[in-house]
Design a protein that fits this description.
By secondary structure, the protein is mainly α. The protein folds into two domains: about 150 residues, no CATH class; about 140 residues, no CATH class. About 65% of the residues lie in helices and about 0% in strands.
């Protein structure tokens, strides 16, 4: 990723765009761009569309989504928005230029964070981090510290539990019962891993479709959020050629997302992004496992690792779901 002043100024515009249309709609447009870029790259072999547009300084979620999240947090602090977690509402209609400027500033910050993360040395030739996910995670935490009132871990309402949130804490469908979460994750991640291990050039198209599926949330339908599970499953399967490692990474991502949602999002007053946090961990876990050699385990043993991971995740989530009291 090369950065110059023109690129930074473009990111400022991307952050303004994200704030103007809303973080969530901006991410949906990114999903459309992912699919378009994936089709173009399959036809032409050229990745420049996704490099410059999808993940660039205009639609890149580390820019536009972060700018929209920052604009919402600032607007809520000024009393012009119902909640800093309202990342769906376009903010241009609030008619406050400072909301857009805040979005532009954090769009630039997101680009800088992603660039800094991309400079982290590789581990045995494998990128040590996912720069975009890590940038979003760091940026949204900073946004909470600057504009929020609940602190990073949020404020738990009387009678509510951190690990068993109630409405209005649970505005988005993050919190699922352990059995539903695991079955859903298997159902999403196994075909994603299979497709990726069979024809990895389709990865971006499937990932983009999973992002576009979020559009149903705009209509009030609590569809599950799965794009991060698809991406994690694709990472494990494409890197190893093993469906079971893809499923393992997907299950771990679902587990981490649930934990991070309960820790940072559901009881807070601004948006901190659980999928970005989970993907940041998973994309660093992979090169670590590759370095120590575990990822080379194949055959029946990789299946057994997947089964053990599913059992452990179920046990932990089941235990946490029983903690009804404030904690």
């Amino acid at each position: 990723m090369l950065i110059d002043w023109l690129y930074l100024f473009s990111a400022f515009g991307g952050g303004i765009f994200g704030s103007a249309v809303g973080a969530f709609p901006a991410f949906l447009l990114c999903g459309v761009s992912i699919v378009a870029g994936g089709i173009l790259s399959m036809i032409t072999g050229d990745q420049s569309f996704n490099t410059l547009i999808t993940w660039g300084p205009f639609l890149g979620p580390h820019v536009a989504f972060a700018g929209g999240a920052a604009g919402a947090a600032y607007a809520a602090k000024q009393g012009k928005l119902d909640s800093g977690r309202n990342i769906v509402k376009p903010l241009a209609g609030l008619k406050d230029p400072f909301i857009l400027l805040v979005g532009g500033f954090f769009g630039v910050l997101g680009l800088v964070f992603a660039w800094g993360a991309s400079q982290i040395p590789e581990i045995k030739g494998i990128p040590a981090v996912n720069p975009i996910a890590l940038s979003i995670a760091i940026n949204t935490m900073i946004i909470r510290l600057i504009f929020g009132k609940t602190g990073l871990l949020g404020a738990i309402h009387a009678g509510h539990s951190r690990w068993h949130p109630k409405d209005p804490d649970n505005g988005f469908p993050w919190h699922l019962s352990p059995a539903v979460l695991i079955i859903l994750s298997i159902g999403i991640c196994f075909p994603a891993a299979y497709i990726s291990s069979t024809k990895s050039e389709t990865d971006s198209i499937l990932f983009g479709i999973s992002v576009i599926a979020l559009a149903f949330l705009v209509f009030g339908l609590k569809v599950p959020i799965i794009f991060h599970l698809v991406l994690a499953a694709q990472l494990g399967a494409a890197a190893t050629g093993n469906v079971w490692w893809g499923l393992t990474f997907g299950i771990l991502t679902a587990f981490l997302t649930e934990i991070f949602a309960c820790l940072f999002l559901l009881h807070g007053d601004t948006h901190i992004d659980p999928p970005a946090m989970a993907l940041s961990v998973i994309f660093t876990l992979y090169p670590v496992l590759a370095y120590i050699g575990i990822i080379q385990i194949m055959g029946i043993w990789s299946f057994l690792i997947t089964a053990v991971v599913i059992f452990i995740v179920w046990m932990i989530l089941n235990r946490l779901s029983r903690l009804k009291t404030k904690s």
